[in-house]
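Lecture notes, continued. The same structure-token format from the folding unit now serves as the input rather than the output. Read the line below as a description of shape only.
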């Protein structure tokens, strides 16, 4: 008999036996596998944390006790255990359940998360609020080992470990370290090596317990020898394992423990609840992808995956056009072949940003810094200052974390760092925390920074080669999906600072960038059916603006519209409106953008439709506006 359908809240777990809990964990895994195969999503990380999630909800009383999951892409089991089974089939679909914790979705989702290394800080804030208000509940931050490559974790732990003189103790807080040796790409750096040593200590501890048990059986001598052995063991552990690292930050350290042994985890978590005078870190070892052999073998492939066939793991739909990440990786390799100053940097996203080929071919010129975008940007500035040509490939949403470093360490010093801004624009099912619709607004405020955006793969490759000539800061934006405009617009050549007039028309002008260039071309087709000839301009250089093209577009009194996949504030439309005022060029007829909001999750078509940016919608909006001149 299935158990999962009867679990409507964490309270329903309390009466289950250990065999029933293990059966439940298996059912949860199967439900996750089936749903992700249908909808896409984060698979390997969610399969690995199932047993730990069951144990957490058995020991703690959510929502009274607060569970905060770092990043949040590993909360599928948490959702299934907190009354959301009936909606789980809608995971990551438009109008359905988010793939991340959302306070609007459940009282059990304490904090909206989507970026790494934030959970300990948020949990510490909650714990301190609890203490100030005189309340009594537990606060637990569940972080992955990948998060420990991000500096925010250490800032939070350093603060949490401070001894409060007035209270006579440190803040009561529990951190559960879910150690599966992976973030998205395999973990790198000194902390990853430290955790490897701690993992090794688990086998050491098993051996010493067996030896100690044998010695204590020796009459008379046993207990005394066992005590001496204990001292020797602690000294050796201190020397070999360095387990005191977390304790030096003021945390009591427990572990490592088997993250798939529910009974053991329950015991340790229950003990942790009794500690009131210091923060604790519980080190749990889990297997990413557990329960689905393909995900266990290749966890990086199944970290975030599109819908796939269970039988062989093949994706249900294969894009004909190569993803832009592949274009970036191949082009950077070609550039590095002829220029030994080219170096590539990633923040734990070598696979997602297409840099695996570069890593394999030019290992000495490739740097994976972990989940540390701020460090990556400033290190890139140092590389540039040292005479190299650094390329930092990063998703738009994660580049937001390095705002000050871009401003202070790159732009202020006018250093030739190339920021490759992947996943620009809407990204679909990952939703509001991951859409790349803010970076243009952020980067536009940076003096001296040039911004280019590719409308298709061919233009992206051209931009990358052209960037070798840049002597100042540069950002190149591109969407995650491949586009090919060659058949519609053959023979295009990218020139920095010059926009491309893809077609002319006497009735109006559509100025677009990125994916919206393709949409503008299709919208112009729709308008032609209605007898209107519209020009389409590819604003491939977003900063500095092509003033000549702006003047040309506005000449003759034609209505000019901008079309872009960006928020309205700081958009190209806003920049052109200001330029028009400054130069007395008139005004734009309209600016189509995302607007001033956060966009939900769903398919690209659904999200673009919601934002009014599908070609037919653009054409309809334009037609309505030009048919009523007083609106322009």
């Amino acid at each position: 008999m299935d158990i999962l359908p009867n679990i409507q809240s964490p309270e329903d777990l309390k009466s289950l036996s250990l065999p029933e809990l293990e059966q439940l964990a298996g059912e949860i895994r199967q439900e996750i596998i089936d749903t992700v195969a249908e909808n896409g999503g984060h698979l390997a990380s969610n399969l690995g944390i199932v047993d730990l999630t069951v144990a957490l909800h058995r020991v703690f009383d959510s929502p009274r006790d607060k569970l905060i999951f770092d990043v949040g892409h590993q909360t599928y089991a948490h959702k299934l255990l907190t009354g959301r089974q009936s909606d789980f089939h809608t995971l990551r679909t438009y109008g359905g359940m988010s793939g991340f914790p959302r306070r609007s979705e459940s009282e059990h989702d304490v904090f909206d998360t989507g970026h790494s290394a934030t959970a300990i800080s948020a949990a510490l804030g909650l714990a301190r609020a609890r203490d100030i208000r005189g309340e009594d509940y537990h606060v637990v931050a569940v972080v992955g080992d990948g998060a420990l490559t991000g500096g925010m974790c250490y800032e939070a732990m350093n603060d949490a470990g401070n001894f409060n003189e007035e209270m006579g103790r440190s803040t009561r807080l529990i951190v559960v370290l879910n150690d599966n040796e992976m973030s998205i790409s395999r973990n790198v750096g000194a902390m990853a090596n430290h955790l490897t040593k701690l993992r090794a200590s688990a086998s050491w501890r098993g051996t010493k317990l067996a030896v100690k048990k044998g010695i204590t059986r020796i009459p008379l001598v046993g207990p005394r020898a066992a005590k001496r052995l204990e001292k020797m063991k602690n000294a050796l552990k201190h020397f070999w394992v360095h387990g005191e690292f977390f304790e030096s930050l003021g945390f009591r350290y427990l572990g490592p423990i088997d993250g798939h042994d529910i009974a053991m985890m329950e015991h340790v978590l229950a003990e942790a609840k009794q500690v009131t005078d210091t923060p604790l870190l519980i080190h749990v070892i889990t297997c990413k992808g557990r329960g689905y052999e393909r995900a266990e073998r290749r966890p990086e492939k199944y970290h975030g995956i599109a819908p796939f066939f269970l039988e062989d793991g093949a994706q249900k739909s294969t894009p004909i056009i190569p993803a832009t990440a592949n274009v970036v990786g191949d082009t950077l390799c070609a550039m590095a072949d002829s220029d030994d100053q080219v170096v590539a940097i990633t923040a734990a996203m070598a696979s997602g940003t297409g840099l695996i080929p570069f890593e394999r071919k030019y290992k000495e010129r490739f740097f994976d810094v972990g989940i540390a975008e701020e460090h990556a940007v400033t290190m890139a500035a140092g590389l540039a200052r040292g005479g190299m040509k650094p390329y930092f490939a990063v998703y738009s949403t994660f580049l937001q974390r390095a705002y000050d470093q871009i401003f202070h360490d790159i732009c202020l010093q006018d250093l030739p760092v190339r920021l490759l801004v992947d996943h620009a624009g809407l990204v679909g099912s990952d939703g509001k925390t991951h859409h790349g619709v803010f970076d243009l607004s952020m980067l536009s405020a940076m003096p001296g920074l040039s911004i280019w955006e590719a409308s298709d793969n061919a233009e992206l490759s051209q931009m990358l080669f052209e960037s070798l000539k840049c002597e100042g800061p540069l950002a190149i934006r591109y969407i995650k999906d491949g586009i090919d405009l060659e058949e519609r617009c053959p023979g295009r050549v990218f020139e920095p600072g010059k926009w491309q007039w893809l077609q002319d028309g006497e009735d109006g002008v559509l100025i677009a960038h990125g994916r919206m260039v393709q949409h503008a071309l299709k919208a112009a087709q729709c308008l032609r059916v209605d007898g209107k000839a519209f020009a389409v301009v590819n604003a491939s250089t977003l900063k500095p603006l092509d003033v000549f093209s702006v003047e040309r577009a506005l000449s003759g009194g034609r209505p000019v519209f901008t079309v872009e996949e960006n928020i309205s504030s700081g958009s190209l439309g806003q920049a052109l409106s200001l330029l028009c005022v400054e130069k007395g060029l008139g005004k734009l007829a309209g600016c189509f953008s995302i607007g001033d909001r956060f966009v939900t999750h769903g398919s690209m078509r659904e999200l673009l439709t919601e934002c009014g940016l599908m070609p037919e919608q653009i054409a309809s909006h334009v037609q309505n506006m030009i048919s009523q001149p007083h609106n322009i």
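Point for the exam: Residues 154 and 349 are 21 Å apart (CA to CA).
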